[in-house]
Structure to design on (155 residues):
């Protein structure tokens, strides 16, 4: 089953955590949601516990699956001394978000981090900011579980 994408995918951003998933499971989820590009927002794109998700191995697996890879952890990564909410007010964060919006305009993008649940990850903040810019956001939790976020309308 393929999940239908609104508007051909332009303006849709999927968020996903690699967690302890196998490479095959991660690739299946990305394909099901029509992802063309993975934007890695981990500050440190490696994993000792799950080496299949370290940057070199992940880039290689994505390339073999025909999915692009980009690392924006320097600007959008979650480990910040000043806290992520303060980081969101910086020019560097805004430049990273601008780049992410630009890429999402060309097709479905997945924002990738390590944590499976977006409620426990900085992806929730990125998702909120993307919604404010008019993009659709979908948190993918598991094979048949995802959450399309409501459209954010500032008042």
């Amino acid at each position: 089953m393929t999940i239908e994408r609104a508007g051909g995918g332009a303006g849709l951003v999927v968020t996903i955590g690699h967690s302890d998933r196998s490479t095959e499971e991660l690739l299946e989820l990305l394909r099901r949601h029509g992802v063309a590009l993975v934007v890695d927002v981990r500050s440190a794109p490696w994993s000792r516990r799950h080496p299949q998700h370290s940057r070199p191995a992940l880039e290689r697996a994505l390339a073999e699956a025909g999915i692009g890879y980009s690392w924006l952890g320097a600007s959008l990564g979650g480990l910040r001394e000043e806290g992520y909410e303060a980081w969101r007010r910086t020019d560097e964060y805004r430049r990273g978000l601008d780049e992410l919006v630009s890429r999402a305009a060309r097709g479905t993008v997945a924002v990738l981090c390590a944590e499976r649940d977006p409620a426990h990850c900085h992806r929730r903040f990125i998702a909120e900011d993307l919604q404010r810019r008019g993009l659709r956001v979908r948190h993918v939790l598991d094979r048949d579980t995802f959450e399309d976020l409501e459209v954010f309308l500032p008042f």
In short: Residues 22-146 form a domain with the Rossmann fold fold (CATH 3.40.50). The chain is about 35% helix and 20% strand.
